[in-house]
Amino acid sequence: VDVAVLEVGLGGKYDATNVVKAPVVCGISSLGYDHMEILGNSLVEIAGEKAGILKKGVPAYTVPQPEVAMSVLKQRASELGVSIRIVPPLDPRQLEDQPLGLHGEHQYMNAGLAVALANTWLERQGHLDRIHVKDHGTLPDQFIKGLSIACLQGRAQIVPDLQVSSECKDTSCPLVFYLDGAHSPESMEICAKWFSHVTKKDAAQPGPLEQRRSGINSKKILLFNCMSVRDPQILLPRLLDTCAQKGLCFDQALFVPNQSQYNKLGSHASPPPGREQIDLSWQLSLQTVWEDLLRGKKGLNGTSSSGASLVFESLPSAIKWLRETSQQNQSTSCQVLVTGSLHLVGDVLRLIKT
C-alpha cells in the first residue's frame, strides 16, 4: 500500500481510525446536522466530535464552515499546536476545460480539499518530483485526470432504466432514476438543487428524438425513505421548499421500506417467500408528513390529494409500479428522485441493474 485514505465511520473523537496515531495529513469536510443522536444536537457539539481526528504535529485542512463550528475546530487545533488551514473551493478554470467528475456545486469545495490533502501528502512524503507542475493557477495533469474521472455511486447519479427503455419503440428512456443518498438537512437541500438543475437542463436540451416527439411531458416523482432516527419534519420540508424555490413541484411521492431491511443475505438474494407482514408504520408516518406539507404549501381547500402519495410494502413492488406506469404512457418521461437514505439508493441501484 503506497497511500491509504481513511474516512471516519462516525464523528472523530472516538472513531476507530484513531488507532493511526500519526497520519500524514488530516482533513475535515463540511459539517452539518447528522448522526445527532450520537454526536450532539448543536454544531458546537458536532464540531467538537469531528475535531477528534486532529493530531499533534499533523497538518490539517478544512473547508469554509459555519462560524460556530470553525471556532471549535480552531480551538482544538490550537490546543494541539496545529495550524488548521481553510481551503477555498476549487476554481473550475484549474481543470483546463475538463468537467468535474462529481456533480453539484458543493463538489468544488470537496475537490479543493482533496487537492490540498494530496499536495500535502506528496510534499511530506517526498514525491513532488513525480508531479509535473505547470504554469501557476493550473493543476498537474494527474490531478485533473483524477478529478474529472472521479465517480461516487449513489450521489448525484443519473441512471436510465434499461428494462423500460429496451421495451420502448424509440430510443429515449421514459423512466430515469436520479439517485442521491442525502439524509441530513444540508445534503437534502443540495440534493434538491441538483435535481432541479439537471431536470431543467434535460428539458432545455432534449435529444434529437425528443425534439420530434410531440406533446412530451415530464413527471417528477419522489421515492423516499429515511431511518427512524432522522426527523422527516426537517428533511422533507427542506427538500420541498428548495425544489419550490427552483420552480419544481413533485407530481407524486412514493414511500417504501428499504429492501435491505429484510434482505440481509447479499446483493443477489431474494426476500424470504413466507415473510411476516412488513411493518409500514414508519412509511405511513412519512406519508402523513408529506401530505400535511402539501396541504400547507398549496392550500388545497378541500381538494382531494389522494393521488399525491403512495406507500408500497416493498421496494420491488414500487419499482414494478414505476415501470408499468412508464410503459403505459410513453409520451411522459418519469423522472424519479431517490433520496433520504444511502441504503435505499443502494437497494434501488441493485434492483434496476439486475
Quick rundown:
The chain has helices spanning 36-39, 43-50, 67-79, 107-124, 141-149, 162-166, 185-204, 208-212, 232-245, 281-298, 315-328, 342-352; strands at residues 26-28, 60-62, 84-86, 157-160, 175-179, 217-224, 252-255, 309-311, 332-339.
Annotated CATH architecture of the largest domain: Alpha-Beta Complex
CATH superfamily of the largest domain: Mur ligase, C-terminal domain
The structure class reads alpha/beta
- The count of strands amounts to 9
Shape: globular
Tell me the span between the first and last alpha carbons. Answer: 33 Å
Total domains, how many? 2
Fraction of residues in β-strands: 5-15%
Mean pLDDT: 84
Biggest sheet descriptor: 6 strands, mixed
**Count, helices:** 12
What is the N-to-C order of secondary-structure elements (H for helix, E for strand)? EHHEHEHHEHEHHEHEHEHEH
- Text of the CATH class of the largest domain: Alpha Beta
Spatial order of strands in the largest sheet: 4-5-9-6-7-8
Helix amount: 25-40%
